[in-house]
Write a structure and sequence with these properties.
- Residues 22-248 form the MacB-like periplasmic core domain.
- The protein has twelve helices and twelve strands.
- By secondary structure, it is of the alpha+beta class.
- It has two domains: 2-52 and 271-400, no CATH class; 103-230, no CATH class.
- The strands form two sheets. It has a six-stranded mixed beta barrel with strand order 4-5-10-7-9-8.
- A hairpin with a 2-residue loop joins strand 2 and strand 3.
- Helix 10 runs antiparallel to helix 11.
- Residues 77-82 have low confidence and may be disordered.
Length: 402
């Protein structure tokens, strides 16, 4: 124990004599560790964010989509955009025969320009039935939601997200009972929803959606087809049987390659797996700076060996073993690396603290352990060669060195 403390004290004293060099050497490891820890924290936060978004959109849901969306556990490139079935009201009525289904909800989505007076905003039209609010956990903030009667009589009414209401009328509440124009047709706002979030990482901004009865916007959907059909199971246990029955019904009209039945969890798993791969690549790129930092440590330790050649010779002459010299320089290398690693973790926590105000980044204990583990390995790996050189020096030649 005394030997270890003495070794550490000697290393610290040596670092104090060369403070600037010690700082610059540790800086490479600090940047590398901070990069890796931050990327892991952002990856963890991103997974949490995506999971929360999916959970907020409802549970026990199955999306009926055109084409084959999932392939090999991931999202197929192009997905249903390459073609597939065009769903209509016949499909909706046929799917309502499935006993395990609580709701069968047609969905038509279209990008639109919404205007009121001089204000014009870009938004997404989400035309559906009245059950969509229950299935998607959408709650009203002001006014009311549209009903089955509104859909049946094709009433020109809409429910809008709070962001769109604020952008058009200044405040969400002031948008109530106001009229907006969608493709030169006037619709009355009967309700404003509570904030749902979204819009991050290129995803949909649910707070800027315009929700309308699907029959009320047939003028915008002349073919009367749907982008998808949303099925909500009565409970989680009936999801598998519901999926099987729905597939059998749709297969009577379409080829199996023309449609997909995708559960929320399947989409979630596919999306998170994509981000996991991306995050792994970014972490590997960040790890390159750790290697650069390790090379810096190795170079500085070689310089230290040269500068302290006479010191090494004197220590050997008075009885220090090769093992003691090797341990001394290896310990200094590891100490340099751990100092940089500690600094990197501290910087990561500080940056994460500020990021958390805008994004749920989260540093895990495992990432900190990995950071220190990698720092130690770099100290040993890149310090062993200079340490061996120091240990192999001849005492006589070292003392005579100028």
């Amino acid at each position: 124990m005394e030997f270890i403390l003495t070794t550490i004290k000697t290393g610290v004293d040596n670092f104090k004599r060369n403070k600037l060099r010690t700082f610059l050497t540790s800086l490479g490891i600090l940047i590398g560790v901070a990069s890796v820890v931050l990327l892991l924290a952002l990856g963890t936060g991103l997974k949490k964010y995506i999971r929360n978004q999916f959970e907020s959109l409802g549970t026990n849901l199955i999306n009926v989509l055109p084409g084959q969306i999932l392939q090999g556990g991931g999202i197929r490139p192009g997905g249903g955009a390459l073609g597939g079935a065009e769903f209509d009201e016949k499909d909706v009525q046929r799917l309502k025969r499935v006993q395990a289904a609580q709701y069968i909800i047609p969905i038509f989505i279209k990008s639109i320009n919404v205007s009121s007076g001089k204000e014009t905003k870009f938004a997404d039209l989400y035309a559906s039935s009245e059950e969509v609010f229950i299935a998607r956990n959408l709650e009203r903030q002001y006014g009311r939601l549209f009903t089955r009667a509104d859909n049946a009589k094709r009433a020109k009414v809409v429910v809008v997200g709070p962001n769109l209401a604020k952008n058009l009328f200044g405040t969400a509440e002031s948008a109530l009972s106001r009229n907006i124009d969608i493709n030169d047709q006037s619709y009355r706002i009967i309700g404003i929803l509570k904030s749902k979030g979204g819009g991050g990482f290129g995803g949909p901004d649910f707070d800027s959606f315009v929700y309308a009865p699907y029959k009320s916007v047939f003028s915008l959907n002349p073919k009367k087809t749907f982008f998808s059909i949303l099925i909500k199971a009565k409970d989680e246990k009936s999801t598998n049987s519901l999926k099987t029955q729905a597939k059998a019904i749709l297969s009577q009209r379409y080829d199996e390659e023309d449609f997909s039945l995708v559960e929320q969890t399947e989409i979630l798993n596919a999306v998170t797996s994509i981000f996991a791969v991306m995050n792994s690549v970014l972490v590997l790129i960040g790890a390159i700076s750790l290697i650069v930092g390790g090379i810096g440590i190795m170079n500085i330790m070689y310089v230290s060996v040269v500068e302290r050649t006479r010191e090494i010779g004197i220590r050997r002459a008075i009885g220090a073993t090769k093992q003691a010299i090797l341990t001394q320089f290896l310990a200094e290398s590891v100490l340099l690396s751990l100092t940089g690693g500690l600094g990197g973790v501290v910087v990561s926590y500080l940056i994460t603290f500020f990021i958390q105000q805008y994004f749920p980044a989260e540093i895990s204990i495992m990432s900190v352990i990995i950071a220190f583990g990698v720092s130690t390995l770099i100290g040993v790996g890149f310090g062993v060669f200079p340490a061996r050189k120091a240990a192999e020096l001849s005492p006589i030649e070292a003392i005579r060195y100028e």
